[in-house]
Design a protein that fits this description.
The chain is mainly α. It is about 65% helix and about 0% strand. The chain is globular.
Length: about 100
């Protein structure tokens, strides 16, 4: 999936972000609003990553997602793809 597709499917992608990075909350997601640079900056802040590390993690996450043309299938589809992504990105449980 490319970033243009992520922006189009942002509501479904947000759930995956929350499940993958528990320190990113609803306010963060509103601030990110589908913008790649904002996502990288906030991820770096919340997890104390360098910008380069955060960028790599975001790119790995997005690369694992596949575009879906049927919107009624997005939530389960995103969950299935996230299972594959979790092996490649940092996973932190919510506290």
């Amino acid at each position: 999936m490319n970033w243009k597709q992520v922006k189009r499917q942002w509501p479904a992608v947000q759930n995956g972000i929350k499940r993958t990075w528990g320190k990113i909350d609803e306010m963060d997601l509103k601030m990110i609003h589908g913008e790649r640079e904002s996502f990288i900056r906030i991820l770096a802040q919340r997890y104390h990553y360098t910008e380069a590390v955060a960028e790599t993690k975001v790119d790995q996450f997005v690369a694992c997602l596949q575009p879906d043309n049927e919107s009624h299938q997005l939530p389960s589809w995103v969950s299935q793809r996230l299972q594959r992504c979790w092996d490649h990105v940092h996973f932190t449980s919510r506290r």
